[in-house]
Amino acid sequence: MRRIFSMSAVGSRTNGVQRATSRSRFVPQFRREVCEVINRIRAAYGPVPMKAVADQPEVKAAEATIEQAARLVYSGLENVEVWRGALVVYELTWMSALKKVRPSDKSAA
């Protein structure tokens, strides 16, 4: 999985030390929350290859949204609930895509 946001912006503004301190508290939180979501997605997919879904436009858009939300929270322009909302949409997008590619459980009558 790609990095969600760049660490290069830490301390790049005039009040860099203060921003870096407040920003750095989000990094472990973001990492943990992303890992939890990815683990749930992987568990749900089981034997279904995730690659079959990864390039779908809606999945790409959901990935871009969580990246943008992380940047906004990290820069102080939004609160962490924006990040969590984007992460929920990301997970729901993957789960919706799974329904489209999972083989039907219906047995032939």
Describe the structure.
It is a single chain. This protein has 5 helices and no strands. With 109 residues, it is mainly α. The protein has one domain (18-101). Residues 1-21 have low confidence and may be disordered.
Query: How many domains make up the 3D coordinates?
Result: 1
List the helices and strands in order. Answer: HHHHH
How much helical structure, as a percent, in the residues? 55-70%
Our count of helices gives: 5
**Rg estimate, integer Å:** 17 Å
What form results from the Cα inertia axes?
Answer: elongated
| Assembly status | single chain
Q: What number is the mean pLDDT?
A: 78
> Strand content of the residues, in percent?
under 5%
Q: Separation of termini? A: 41 Å
| Structural class based on helices, strands and sheet pairing | mainly alpha
Low-confidence spans: pLDDT under 50, at least 5 residues? 1-21
* Main pleated-sheet profile: none
| Number of E-type strands | 0
Task: Itemize the secondary structure elements and their pairings.
Layout: H1 16-24, H2 26-45, H3 51-54, H4 57-74, H5 80-101
Helix pairs in contact: 2-5, 4-5
Describe this structure in a few short sentences.
With 109 residues, this protein is mainly alpha-helical. The protein has 5 helices and no strands. It has one domain.
Characteristics:
0% strand, single chain, 5 helices, 109 residues, mainly alpha
